[in-house]
Amino acid sequence: MDVNRIRELREGRGWTMEELAVRVAPPTTASQISKLEKGRRKLTYEWMQKLALTLGCYPQDLVDQDTETLSYQEQQLLATFRGLSDVQQEAFLHAASALATPRPGKGKS
Predict the structure, then answer these.
(1) What is the Cα–Cα distance from 104 to 108, expressed in whole angstroms?
(2) What is the CATH number for 49?
(3) Where are the alpha helices (DSSP H) in 13-103?
């Protein structure tokens, strides 16, 4: 099983690692792309945003995700998120991150 779908999406556009590397803003190296594709470098949300913009997909499309294995609630959440504008997605992610981060002395409830 692949770590992510970067290679699949890149090759689907007929691009080499070098071509993807120079198209990403700011440009990177083919070595970095290789590390990301093979899971040797962490695919952070920032990397996902850069690569998704370059590859013309959603950031979540970069990770191997079978939506059929998601619960109904997860599918609804994903569908809602995909329907948001870029600004709304950023606000949503910020809010979700704040909700998921336990506050000192509070723990998760």
Answers:
(1) 10
(2) 1.10.260.40
(3) 17-23, 30-37, 45-55, 72-82, 86-100
DSSP 39: T
**What is d(CA 84, CA 73) in angstroms, rounded to the nearest whole number?**
17
> DSSP character for 38?
T
3-state secondary structure of 55: helix
* CB neighbours of residue 74 within 10 Å: 12
Closest to 100 (Cα-Cα) out of 109, 89, 88: 109
Residues 80 and 44 in one domain: no
Q: Is the pTM of this model over 0.70?
A: no
Residue 1 is assigned to a structural domain of this protein? no
What pLDDT digit, counting tens, does each position of 45-103 carry? 999 999 999 998 888 889 866 656 667 787 788 778 777 888 988 899 889 888 887 77
